[in-house]
Amino acid sequence: MRQKVDILIVDDLKENHLVMESVLTDEDLNLINAMSGEEALKLCSSHSFAVILMDVQMPGLDGFQTAELLRKIEKTKKIPIIFVTAISKEKKSIFKGYEVGAVDYLFKPIDPLILRSKVNIFKELYLQRRLIEDIAEELENKIVELTNLKEEKCKLEDISLEDFLTGTYNRRGIDRMLKMHWRNCSRYEMPLSVIMLDLDNFKKYNDMYGHIQGDEVLKKVASSIKGTLGRSEDFAGRYGGEEFLVVLPNTSLDGAIIIADRINNKLKELSIKHENNDANGYVTVSMGIASIFPKNHMNMEGIIKHADEMLYKAKENGKNQYKYIEI
């Protein structure tokens, strides 16, 4: 069922209302009468009219004055106004109507066919405009909904890339970020270095102090590692268990060694007791460092493999140290 469209008839004579009502019998029309310009202004503040049929000569506010006032109000300034008048058809009078905002004229006696035709045109224009507005509002709501969903998706992705315990990247996050930096370093022919770290004798630490305390140590170590990274593009992630990976884009082997030394110094400052650590009675790490020019190699898995091999050598050589390779 189509919605009814409000049409405002403004005339100080009741018989003129009756004449137009007898012509405008379309079921889609909801005819609303105003006996004066003042009443028309009040009705326009509470209704949305497709068109206003307004007499020119009325006591109080005449049609021209009423139209001028309607054009000054934001809500009503775009309502089409058709003047219905029996006065002179002289150009001067007609121009006056157009100057105050009329879109058309009807002269009495009214031709029923012309009246119905004009009102029907404005009714259809109104319905089309409302349809466009409804579609625009729906689209706007959809855009807002999609924007919210995108923001939620980004938040969830950020969460899914983060290691809950340490606040560093998890394995998935490491892979994603490393791929991005690998491409950039390959494109711009820059070096890329990684440091694989492993807490020495950490199983023994958990056995002695408990897993809750062990988790606290992991958080402190992760924080210390992040504290050594001075650039926004450098990042650290928990590779698994007590293993961490530091990725250093556009960093040579010498630069990576500097970071490794900083990590060791940070851990010395922490001085976390670990009586079951054969190295020195405190929490220490062994590190494997690998530096590569991605431009000269086909995939990024190789650099992690080499860093892991260097880590193994550091462990085999007594722990609490680093080994490195430049590929």
UniProtKB/TrEMBL annotation:
Coiled coil: 122-156
GO-annotated molecular function: diguanylate cyclase activity
Keyword Methyltransferase carried by entry: no
Ranges where the Response regulatory domain occurs: 6-123
SMART domains listed in its UniProt record: GGDEF, REC
Keywords: Coiled coil, Nucleotidyltransferase, Phosphoprotein, Transferase
GO biological process: cell adhesion involved in single-species biofilm formation; negative regulation of bacterial-type flagellum-dependent cell motility; phosphorelay signal transduction system
Domain GGDEF: 190-327
A family per Pfam: Response_reg
Origin: domain of life: Bacteria
PROSITE patterns: GGDEF, RESPONSE_REGULATORY
Name of the molecule in the record: Stage 0 sporulation protein A homolog
Species per Swiss-Prot/TrEMBL record: Oceanirhabdus seepicola
